Amino acid sequence: MQTLMWTVDKNVDNLETYPQIKEAAQNLKQNEVVAFPTETVYGLGGNAESDEAVLKIFEAKGRPGDNPLIIHIANTEQIHSFVKGIPEQASRLMDAFWPGPLTIILEKKEGTLSEKATAGLSTVAVRMPDHPVALALIEESGLPLAAPSANLSGKPSPTTAAHVADDLTGRISGIVDGGATGVGLESTVVDCTGGIPVILRPGGVTKEQLEEVVGEVSADPALTDEGQAPKAPGMKYRHYAPNSPFYLVDGSKEEIQQLVNEKRNEGQRVGVMTTKENKDFYDANVVKTCGERARLETVAEALYDTLRAFNKEDLDIIFGEIFPEQGVGQAIMNRLSKASGLPIIIK
Fold this sequence. Notes:
Blueprint lengths: L3 E4 L11 H11 L4 E3 L6 E5 L3 H11 L8 E3 L15 H10 L4 E6 L15 E5 L4 H10 L3 E2 L14 H8 L5 E4 L10 E4 L6 E4 L5 H8 L3 E2 L26 E5 L2 H13 L4 E5 L11 E4 L6 H15 L6 E5 L6 H13 L4 E2 L1
Parallel strand pairs: 1-8, 2-8, 4-6, 5-9, 10-11, 12-15, 12-16, 13-14, 13-15
Antiparallel strand pairs: 2-3, 3-7, 4-7, 5-6, 9-10
């Protein structure tokens, strides 16, 4: 399959200037799948009302079909065709954070969306992205778009069109290149179908920010207990993994360097993922920085690009620093734990 590339300015404000968006939207109307930028990561969009389109998303990603997809909309009017109602707390969260990196789970109205998009569940995950290109594309297509991250399943999520091309060229009909994304981590997912909103996946909107709007907010036990089955889209399987074994280390930089020395003495090539504050401390085969520890939002923004960068190196093992689990740090550690899939080394 030929994969087209449409380059548009991030600040697109009209479709007459950007016919590329019209062409990409036409592909979506024909039940093809198209990658596009959001403020979090690049999404792989398809007509959420079409089994054919949704199956193409799963096939392109190599994603298990029991993983529900997030439905992306361009305006709140779209949501009424496929949800039963909007609880007061959900409405307040929409007013506060839409468009933005917040996904809200609501009760689904039967008969509109593809059952494959929602994995046969009675609920649906919805968000309105805060990106002019994404909003223009959804608006022009006239469709709700099912859109997981535009990467091969298990690999780091894409934050540039080049990342998407590396994974999906020849597997999808096209990529809308709107430049690098902003937040860098996927949206926060909040279940609003019960009495108290529940965070199913931490992301760009923090627990503290949610509580400022609706008061008490709880967290899915699966976020801290591996024995619990996760409920959020994309959280059931290992994600974001670099090619080499990746261990997080709960210890000082001196203790991490000791681990590096031990592995190098065994003849292994070793990588370290750190921040700008510590980059000059480590002596390893490859040292890559992921933002600034003093500004965790920069770590979030650079996380997936850094994980992907390690794949260009010939490494036997990678060690990574951990981060405090407050604010966006909770989302960072959630993604790093998923990327590792291995026990944290405690020193």
